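Backbones bend. We report:
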Amino acid sequence: MVTRAEAAAATRSALVRAASELLDEGGPDAVTLRAVGARAGVSRGAPYGHFEDKAHLLTELAVNAWNSVADEVERVRADPEATAGGRLECGLLALIELGRRQPHRYALMFSTPVAGDPEAAAAASRLENQYLALVADLVGEADARRYGALLMSSAHGIAGLELSGHLAKEKWEVGGEQLVRMLVDAIRAGAAEKP
């Protein structure tokens, strides 16, 4: 027999899954509590019992995205076979790949209303800390923050340019993966030259 708490958790999970699908299909405008409930196959009022409003639901999707990328970066960092530079490349590409596969979710992660939410801020901070650990593995703790800022802003720029179509390989003769490798190589060289 399913408990009331288990039923509520299953309904919430179905609502989040439905909202994720709607977001991926049509962006934030496609995510309404009514559409989410219909997609999840629950009563009309069910979404309102789990989420205060649409913004609350979208914030949960952003938090899930931040945590998903953080989980991936954690797995990458734990790979004993990869070099520090290779792990850093993979970690940066995990964020860029999310932008490629799920552009609406990626954009939502960096949107202003979501950024002000404490849970979203904590999830974003978790990912940033994972990246800083990858960077520190390559350049050391003392330089991790400044190189980390360069790498994160560059990865975000690469993802944004790819999404907008302004980073066409035909035009620039370079793709996102190559740009990430060039960045990591340049940072590795810069850190090695430091007295």
